[in-house]
Specification:
- The chain is α+β, with helices and mostly antiparallel strands.
- It has one domain.
- Strands 1-3-2 form a three-stranded antiparallel sheet.
- The longest helix is centred in the last third of the chain and has 25 residues.
- The protein is globular.
- The protein starts with a strand and ends with a helix.
Length: about 80
Amino acid sequence: MKRATIRTEHDRPELVAAALEPDNTDEMTTRVESTADDDGDERASGRAVVTTIERETTGSLRTTADDYVTNLAVAQHLIDTTTQS
């Protein structure tokens, strides 16, 4: 089994994760985690969307990761567009 973990920081990670979840396959998990700065202070940093993808082959892992990154970019763009203050 091949595995990749993609971690991206966002201002509104819960919205990003919720937007991505419907497109996840059974071999994907998405969660929100706190991230710490270089001194270990979680309050000084942000929060991240972390998705782990598992596939049988490197090719299918690459294809799924590429699709995920595209979905991530679209989700972030839509969130940025619809939640501007």
